[in-house]
Amino acid sequence: MKISTQSIVLFALFFLTYCSNLQAQDPRFSQYYASPWNLNPAMTGVFNGSWRATANYRDQWGSIISPVPFRTYSTAFEQRVQVGVRDDYASFGIGAMHDEAGTARFLQNRIHLGGAFLKQLSGGRQQADHYLSAGAQVGFGQNSIDWGKVWFSRQFDNTTETPDFSAPSGEPMANSPSKGWLDFNAGLLWYVVLENNGTFYLGGAMHHLNKPNISFIEDDAETLYVRWSAHAGGEFPLNHNISLLPGALVMKQGPAFETDLGLNLRYSNNDLNELALRAGAWLRVGNKLDKQFQADAVTLVGMLELNRCMLGLSYDVTVSKLTQANNSRGAFELSLTYFHPGERKTRVQCPNF
């Protein structure tokens, strides 16, 4: 499909608007449920097993701004230990994120340490098990720009009508990253495990509680907006092999608001060496220039669970007006999770996300 000049202009305006707020907003994953470390600190240690390792990758808008699309990498490791005689757990973890955006290679790098305490509120034989988890994270971050990829008006050569990258830019902040900044996150999660191994969960989190200063200029105070989020979902068995995993996520950070909701269908053989398949679709709705809401993308998801490993693939199909520029081609995402088994086997204690 041939892209018209009007489409290119529309995308350029959208891109500039996005980048104007880029410093004050977080990267995100469509498979948010496969990136629990970045979703809610209270989800640290909420899994069946002794430890969990996760990795996530996102590649966005490669069809338009290739070879420099927006890319996000994330990885995390979590360990949990039983506390006392009941099914209470303490957990800790470490996670890192690297994000690259645009031609100027605007980079965001973060690393956090975190922990959570998982308390069994009630439960027993022929009773539903209720749990409450509280978690927090502390970490550091730093942003930077590849100044060799950008140019300013002072570097424009009127003779050749091209930018001269060897000429001085006259910009005092050139070649300098932002200062390292301290970051605090916190969250809560409640969930219930039913007798048929069905689950339901409800959680909320707040990131960047201290509003860190991420400015590139020493005498400026460009702060990172606080991000609050609420999420809910569960697993509801239809029979011995098939279950539904609906979910919803609501997030707000500064002027940006987003809602993700959808459903995954899960088939499992329920054997000792479990093999399970998931397929689903999710809708993302966001605000447009702080004034109105619009459907942004539909995410198609396929996941494979093999014993203790889970692999997820998804693709965002653009459904907003941006389709005039990208022909509905949005973002590709990959997730990988490994659960290490615990010392003893028990019935389901944690939900599937």
Helix content: under 10%
For the largest beta sheet, what order do the strands appear in spatially? Answer: 1-2-3-4-5-8-9-10-11-12-13-14-15-16
- Give the percentage of residues in beta strands: over 45%
The total tally of domains equals 1
Walk me through the structure.
The chain has 353 residues and is mostly beta strands. The protein has one domain (5-340): monomeric porin ompg (Porin). 8% of the residues lie in helices and 53% in strands. It is built from 4 helices and 16 strands. The chain has a 14-stranded antiparallel barrel. The longest helix has 16 residues, at 5-20. Mean pLDDT is 83; it is low at 1-23.
Give me a quick take on this structure:
The protein is mainly beta and 353 residues long. It has helices at residues 5-20, 36-39, 62-65, 323-326, and strands spanning 51-60, 70-83, 88-101, 106-124, 127-144, 156-157, 162-163, 181-193, 199-207, 227-237, 242-253, 256-268, 275-288, 292-306, 309-318, 329-340.
Question: Which key phrases capture this entry?
Answer:
single chain, 353 residues, mainly beta, Porin, 14-stranded antiparallel β-barrel, two-stranded antiparallel sheet, 4 helices, globular, disordered N terminus
